[in-house]
Amino acid sequence: MSLAPFVTALALPLLLALALIWPQARSLVWRMMPFAPLPALALALLGDLPMHAQADWMILGLQFGLDEISRLFVIFTGLLWCAAGASARHWMRHDARATSFGVMFLMAQTGNLGLLLALDAASFYAFFAPMSFASYGLVLHSRTPQAQGAARLYIGFVVLGELALFAGLALAVAQAGSFHVADLRATALSDPAVALMMIGLCVKLGIMPLHFWLPPAHGAAPVPASAVLSGAMIKAGLFGMITLLPLGGVTYADHGTVMMAAGMVTIFAALLLGVQQTSPKAVLGYSSVSQMGILALGLGAGLMVPQAWVAILPVLVFLAAHHALAKGALFLGTGAFAAQTGPAAKLAVTLALLLPAFVLAGLPASSGALGKEALKTAFNAGSPVWLPWLTVALSLSGVATTLLMARYVAMIWLHPPGAPAKVTQEAVLLPFLALVGASLALPLVWVAVAGTLAAPISQAAPGALWPVALGVAMAAGVAIHAHAQRIGPAVFLAQITAPGRALALRADSILAAKRRAARRLAHAMPKAIGETAMRWRLGQTAIAGLIALTLLLEAGGSLRGEAAMPPAAQPGAAHPPGHMLPPYFEP
Amino acid sequence: MTPDLIYGLTGIAVFGIGLVGALCALDRLRRVLALKLCSVGAGFLLVVGAWRAPPGVPDPVPHALVITGIVVMVSATAVALALIRRLQTLEAEDER
Amino acid sequence: MSVDLSPITLAIFVPLFGAIMAFLLPRAASVIGLATLALTTGAVIWLARAVLTGGAVVLPLGGWGAPLGIDLRADGLSVAMLGLTCAVGFLVSVAALDSLKGAQQARQRQYFWPLWLLLLTGMNGVYLGTDIFNLYVMIEVIALAAVGLTVLSGSRAAVQAGLEYMYASILGALLFLMGVGFIYLQLGRLDFAGLTGAEPTGALIAALALMFVGLALKTALFPLHFWLPAAHANATAPASALLSGLVVKAALYIVLRLAQYMPFPSETLLTLVGLMGAGAVIWGGIQALRAERLKLLVAWSTVAQIGLIFVAFARAGEVGLPESWKAAALLILAHGIAKAAMFLAAGRIKDEIGHDVIRDLDRSPIRPTLAQFTFALAAISLIGLPPSLGFIGKWSLMEGAMAAGYWHWVAVTMAGTLMSVAYFSRVFAGFLRFDRVRAPVGEHQGWALADAAPLTLALAAIGLGLLAAPILGFIEIGYPFGVAP
Amino acid sequence: MMDAPLLPLFILLTSLLAAPVLFSLPERAARLRTGINLGMAGLKVALVAWLSLKVSQGVIYDLRFELLPGLEFKLQADPLAILFIALSAVLWLITTIYSVGYLEHGPHRARFFGFFSLCVAATVGIALSGNLFTFLLFYELLTLATYPLVIHRGTAEALRAGRIYLIYTLAGGLVLLLGTLGLWVLAGTTDFVPGGVLAYVVAVNPLAAQLLFVVLIGALGVKAALFPFHVWLPIAMVAPAPVSALLHAVAVVKAGAFGIMRVVYEVFGIETAQALGVTAPLAVLAGVTIIYGSLKAITQDDIKKRLAYSTVSQVSYITLGVALASPLAAVGALAHLIHQGLMKITMFMVAGNLAEGLGVKRVSQMDGVGRAMPGSMLAFTLAALGMIGLPPLAGFVSKWYLAQGGLEAGQAWVIELLLGSSLLNAIYFMPMLHRAWFRDAAPETTGAPGRPRIGWMLAVPPAATAALVLIAGGFANAPFSPLEWTRFIVAIEYQE
Q1: Are A560 and B12 in contact (CB under 8 A)?
Q2: In angstroms, how far is CA D34 from the centroid of its own chain?
């Protein structure tokens, strides 16, 4: 298959990003912003599966392709980027740093779509990294102290994750002997390789204890950016695990145990932390963390019991899509809420916000509830030991999410997020509502889009009301104040290196003194020696003595030896002696 | 002790005295004179060479060498003395 | 008696005749000097061709062969030395033309040419002589002429240094003479051929040691170097170039020759020679690092370099001697060319800037670029960086020492090289620093004809390294000596 | 096509002959000088392109000239030489343009460009050397030609730096001389032969061979800035930006690294070296240098010093890859020779632009420079991200192969090392990028408001090299890319 569609899909956002550098092109680019993911979306929706194309000369042999799983990811990711782009276009209209935002936004988009299309490890990494790094600019965008702190934390985790991923991929490729992800999946990768890749991807996914960056970052980024960060980009971690790890083929019991334990902790710890937040977007961030805990349960079960993976995989994809759309809607809705001026409009938006909030919390028959039920069903194929725990955890996660949502709704009123001064209200409302719609319609649409993969969802029970109800009840009686703070890595580093630096300084000064002394000595010594030798004529006297000794020897040897010398040894004797004279003595 | 041995040892001794003077003396003129002594010592030694067997027939080669040596030394002494004078003049000028 | 018109005789008598003429006709001295040099160079080239085609050339002067008469002999090594002398001498003369052209230098001009031509006679005589007594006479001639050149500037320091040089030189010659006397007593012969194969008795070795000490004094081998720095530093630039580049080489050459023909040195003696060389390398280096004036630094570097040549000589012990002399010869050639270039360049720098205090070189707004460049090129050869002739010499030195397992000589060479880097870089810093000058610094100042000669020499010192193989081949012609026909 | 056996010599002469001409041009003949500079640089690129084409077709050039009995001056154009020579030719052209712009009104231009040209001649000579002896000749020439460049500014600081530089490099050169002599005495040849010339010696006298290895690597390690011989490199940063760029990217440190390659592959032979047990310590030393350089870089505030320590670290990747004794690591090492050159030269040129256009010389002054100089900083960003090892930039490719090589050689610690190093790279580069792009400019540090004026001659070269960084990484698998060429070489060195 030709490479062209893939290149087009990725080149459009990239070219738009580059075009932003020219001031003349900027307005056009902003107008194009919502449509940047369209080629990729079109490819996913219209293309015949499976697609595959390769360019050996690119990077380390670039391979693109789409299969059923990645196609679904492209669809919901693209959709989210479209909505966020549409929102960003208005959100950023009067922003002084709009260009910077635009470039980063589009770069991240390129990376996000690219990694979904990539079929080899190097390219996956090649797209994963720009996405992560470009997001740094998105998180930092407002330049407020919070944003800077969040960005610093974010970049630290990104670097950590990238390194782990790099190492894991390097190991994996070395073991598989191939870059192709299918080969990676087919190989029994070693434990460290899998562990490293999992760490790298879990950072993105925000599984505890690698989640620290996520809530502050999602809270600090501008609304459209938070939407894609929380909706689209963290799913890259999930996608990475699905596509790179040999799930369903090899048993990794330890990894699975850790993953599930982390998932369970994540679901509930995120609740405890999240309800202390005052910023609504940070609350949403924790909610994302909590939701990712659910995905982690699925992944862990798959790692532990490969046979269950076939059942778990479609559910996980569905849950990812569900979370992407609902969380995207919530973030964009936060923006829409902030943009409203009148209390009536605010109320209306709040009501609209309740829809995705309940979807997320798992109101029966909503995508959230269907996903969880389907997951429970899928777990039946998994480890029987863990099954009851998982079921309980899934059910209780509904309570947790409900509580978080409640906190969120309270907070948008108590601590309303900021919005640009002259933003067009309708314009930011529209993408929000579109996503709300998509989120609500997901269970219905999924069957059409996902085909055979939709089976577990369509067969899932509608789910129970009690977790949501319990959550709402609890939320009603809860009021908590919280504070969170941390210290930056830079301070830490300075503290660590301080004694070393002091030591080096001290050593330098001592060395310098020693060197000065040595230099003085080096100057003085030869001079003194030279002068002494000169004054006492040491050399000459010594030589004189030596020569005198030689002369004595000579006197002993030569003069006595002379008498003993046989006449025949005197060549001169055979000739007239006068001939020995130099010419000028000639007679 | 044969005369040649005495002669030779004297030459060596004279050379040695001159050598010590030439190297260790400080006065310029003394050093020139010491060098002259060296030269004389060397001359003695060469003359011993003419004494060789058969003792009755003197070998003229060493004589020629000695004469050459003396000529060379004379010119060297002249140059040295000229330099010493020149130096004295310069020093006198500097002191004035 | 009839003297055949042979390049050998020409090489000796043309300069002698020229010296007399230059003395008699002071007004035409420079013309006579250059013409003489040109003729001598021609004779040497002629000789070189003869040697190249027919091997060593022997000329019995006056018709008698050794051991009775005086043989003059030219083989590869002696022609190489002659070539060095004439080529360097010619270029130094060209430079001298320029540096002596001032009105106040009339006196210098008057004496320079006769003295220099006399010096040339002496050196050519040394390189062609085959008889140690003749060598004695010639080194005396060289000594007198060289002292004359040293005091040419007439300054007090120069005269003082010249006198000191005189003492050392005469004493050295007398020690040599003493050795000659002893050898005559022992062997009854004075020509090289007669010395070959003699029984190495203790007395003979002691005689040799005397001669060696005398020569060491003349070539300023540590610790007998005391006269050299002052003499070379205080002479005028062309004179320094001649003294440092050529004159000390005459005595060195005799050492090489003696080593070829005499029952040489036991291992200990050779080690002693090497140690003296090593001492020179180290001490010369230390003093050069301390020197405050440019020419003094260069003079101390001569001390160090001469030490290095002796190290080369001793590099592989007794067994390696048949090869070691080649390394020494290469270093002699390299040092002769490069040091002459360096002294001329130093003189040029001093002329342009007005002083040669190293510390204050960078205070001058005048930068004689070309002379500085020349100095640097010469330094490259002296340090022994590739591809200069100095490098090739050092390479041979270290190669032999290493092959023989004499690591200490390798270490000495490396230490000497590092020290030379250190002391020359002091000078470079003076050339290249600009922040201590108030006035705007002009580049390309002080171009003069006088720069051409040192530059040529310096380029030759570097470029000849590429011709090392043919040069080595050439100096081996006619070796070993054997008994003359 | 015409066959020219003297082609390597011509390539050498293009810059060797340019030097005296440039020296002798008067200071004011700027246009003529620029013309000669660019003409020669362009000619060299063309000749090198031709040469690489011929060599890729299997032609081996071999020119010899006897200097001493048995000891030859030998020029040889093999694929490894092409790798280095292509780098130096291309970067010479780019740096020449940059230097012309940078020194437009500075003093001593005749001298500068003369030595600049000589420096490149030495680099080319090093690349083309067919034996260690010839290598030594050019190695020393390189030292001498770069010294005047390092002290070009003529200040006390520059002189001090120059002295340290000279002492380190000449001492290194001296030790190399010792090593060359040792090789000559032991093996009777100094030729570079794939597979090495020392197999016999190693079998007979392993101790001598080990000693020789230590001496040679120690000597080359001075220029390659291996710990603890790296001291001169950060100090030599007082040189003008184009000089630093050239020193770091192409000439000096690369000469050392290239020498290490030659010694390990073609003097000892990789298998012999491995059997001798010397590669593992070398790898460890390289690892120490990598970490040490990065740690030092973090604490530097001066931009050029930070870059310098980064060079210390990055160049040791090359040594590491060579020492790992695995073909994949070798691919990484050789590719890094090119890749690091491209990245580092970009960064130094941008550092020069910052100093020139904005007066920014310290990291702490870099706030908001991205807005003031977007083009230059974009180039810098690409290079820095490449250094960290982000795909699809050049640095990723080499790191990837190094990691694979480490695994292939069974040395898993290499992965940890690479991770640590990348982490440290990120720690010292990220703040620069952060300041440049995400902080608002402080007016008092960047001087006058508005866009700075830097001419196209300063702006285009870093952009070009940054583009090459992207291309070398993005098209790493394309024919004639550094990576492909590297694989070609490694196949020869490992005699596969």
Answers
A1: no
A2: 24
C-alpha C76/C-alpha C54 separation (Å) is 11
- Give the closest of B22, B72, B94 to C167, CB-based: B22
For A103-170, what is the HEC assignment? HHHHHHHHHHHHHHHECEHHHHHHHHHHHHHHHHHHHHCCCCHHHHHHHHHHHHHHHHHHHHHHHHHH
User: Which residue is listed with tokens 């993976």?
Assistant: A309
**Beta-bridge partner residues of C442:** C366
Distance CA D302, CA A580 (A): 82
Report how many domains make up chain B.
Answer: 1
Q: Which residues of B touch C174 (CB under 8 A)?
A: 15, 35, 38-39, 42
CA atoms within 13 A on the CB side of A365: 2
Helices first, then strands: H and E counts in chain D: 23, 2
Instruction: Using a threshold of 3 CB pairs under 8 A, tell whether chains D and A touch.
Output: yes
Q: Is C149 on the interface with B (CB under 8 A)?
A: no
pLDDT tens digits, one per residue of C106-161: 777 788 888 999 999 999 999 988 888 888 888 988 998 999 888 888 888 888 88
End-to-end C-alpha distance for chain A, whole angstroms: 114
Q: Which two tokens stand for residue A446?
A: 């999924």
The verdict on pTM exceeding 0.90 is no
- The CATH number for B25's domain is 1.10.287.3510
Which phi-psi region, left, alpha or beta, contains residue A528 (left: φ > 0; alpha: ψ -120 to 50)? Answer: alpha
Give per-residue pLDDT as tens, D114-162.
888 888 888 889 988 888 889 998 988 888 888 888 888 888 888 888 8
Contacts of A565 in chain B (CB under 8 A): 52-53
* Rounded distance between C-alpha atoms, residue C74 and residue A357, angstroms: 110
- DSSP string covering C418-469, please? HHHHHHHHHHHHHHH--TT-SSPPBSS----HHHHHHHHHHHHHHHGGGGHH
**Which chain C residue is nearest to residue D70, measuring alpha carbons?**
C469
| Three-state secondary structure call for residue A62 | strand
Across D234-262, average pLDDT? 84
Task: Give every CB contact of residue A145 below 8 A, 6+ residues apart in sequence.
Answer: none
CB of C334 within 8 Å of a chain A CB? The answer is no
CB atoms within 10 A of CB C444: 15
Q: Do chains A and C touch (3 or more CB pairs under 8 A)?
A: yes
- Option in B32, B46, B76 nearest C140 (CB): B76
Domain residue limits, chain C: 7-475
Determine contact, residues D376/D451, Cβ cutoff 8 Å.
no
Would the pLDDT of A110 be above 50?
yes
Nearest to A223 by CA among A70, A80, A384, A39: A80
Q: What are phi and psi of A165, to 5 degrees?
A: -65, -45
Taking CB atoms and an 8 Å limit, are C441 and D107 in contact across chains? yes
- Torsion sign across C-alpha atoms A145, A149, A150, A151: positive
Q: What is the pLDDT of residues A262-306, one digit of tens each?
A: 888 888 887 878 777 778 888 888 888 888 888 888 888 888 888
Residue pLDDT, tens place only, C417-447 = 989 988 888 888 888 877 777 666 555 555 6
Residue in D closest to C400 by C-alpha: D185
* 3-class state of residue C23 by DSSP: helix
ipTM of the complex: 0.75
The nearest CA of chain D is from the CA of C248 a distance in Å of 26
Q: What is the pLDDT of residues A226-238, one digit of tens each?
A: 888 888 888 888 8
The CA distance from D33 to A97, in Å, is 44
Core vs surface per residue A125-158: b (16+ CB within 10 A) or e: bbbbbbbbbbbbbbbbbbeeeebbbbbbbbbbbb
Q: Rounded to a whole number, what is the distance in Å from the CA of C330 to chain A's nearest CA?
A: 29
